[in-house]
Design brief:
With 237 residues, the chain is of the alpha/beta class. Helices cover 35% and strands 17% of the residues. The strands form two sheets. A seven-stranded parallel sheet has the order 3-2-1-4-5-6-9, sandwiched between helices. The longest helix has 24 residues.
């Protein structure tokens, strides 16, 4: 039985990824995990379940309940703004609690997902664990500044992915561990900031999911540890 897990299936991209995987012929079961999972709708491959990316015990419990082997794990979570908090444009806007919250959701939570779910990947065949990152997490590509917490936490995520990939390759040489940049997607995360993005570069969640899954389909173990954009290009570190 081929199984996939989507963590963050309550968000726009995560929900689209779960639907696409469930509708494909590639998986017999798709575990769609979120803080507010819907009721299980029937005998299809979609299996809603609970996880809170900000709660370490919840991550461990979800992994233990699902078990392995798994062919695909997608971490589709992220935090850019919340309530009165917006991306910081200047040093004077930095707030310790808000910075910690961004690191919790964008880096620490995914790191703990890697801790508990990477050992569940199938060891005798190609298997993938991937996390949604962002081009703004590239240090070498940062020419505009601003967005301190989001940039830094996504850069941390990219380093976590790279480091985990090195460790994972020692015990599961066919496994792939990567970051994914989905582009600008019409979700609650990016909606306040998309006005300057050309219409041709703004995607629906469904289109973004299709593009990301095509990128994953084209990767092999040589890609592990890197970050790839929606068009298949590599995001520089």
């Amino acid at each position: 039985m081929r199984r996939a897990v989507v963590i963050g299936s309550g968000g726009g991209i995560g929900a689209a990824l779960a639907r696409r995987l469930a509708a494909s012929a590639g998986f017999d079961m798709v575990h769609a995990l979120s803080r507010h999972p819907p009721p299980n709708e029937g005998p299809g491959p979609l299996r809603p379940g609970y996880i809170d990316i900000g709660a370490p015990d919840s991550i461990a419990a979800a992994a233990a309940a699902i078990g392995g082997p798994l062919e695909l794990v997608l971490i589709a979570t992220g935090l850019l703004h919340e309530g009165e908090h917006r991306p910081e444009r200047a040093l004077k806007a930095l707030d310790a609690a808000w910075l910690a919250g961004q690191f919790q959701i964008n880096a620490i939570g995914p790191a703990l997902v890697l801790r508990h779910f990477a050992p569940l990947l199938a060891g005798d065949r190609r298997a993938i664990i991937a996390a949604l990152s962002a081009r703004v997490g590239s240090i070498s590509d940062n020419r505009l500044g601003g967005w301190y917490g989001y940039r830094a936490s996504k850069a941390a995520l990219n380093m976590i992915v790279r480091t985990a990939a090195i460790e994972l390759a020692r015990v599961r040489p066919a496994a792939i561990c990567v970051g994914l940049h989905p582009g600008t997607v019409d979700t609650g995360l990016s909606r306040p900031f998309r006005s300057g993005v050309p219409a041709a570069r703004r995607f629906t969640p469904e289109a973004a999911a299709d593009r990301l899954l095509r990128v994953l389909d084209g990767l092999d173990a040589r890609a592990t540890g890197r970050c790839f954009a929606w068009d298949g290009s590599e995001v520089p570190p």
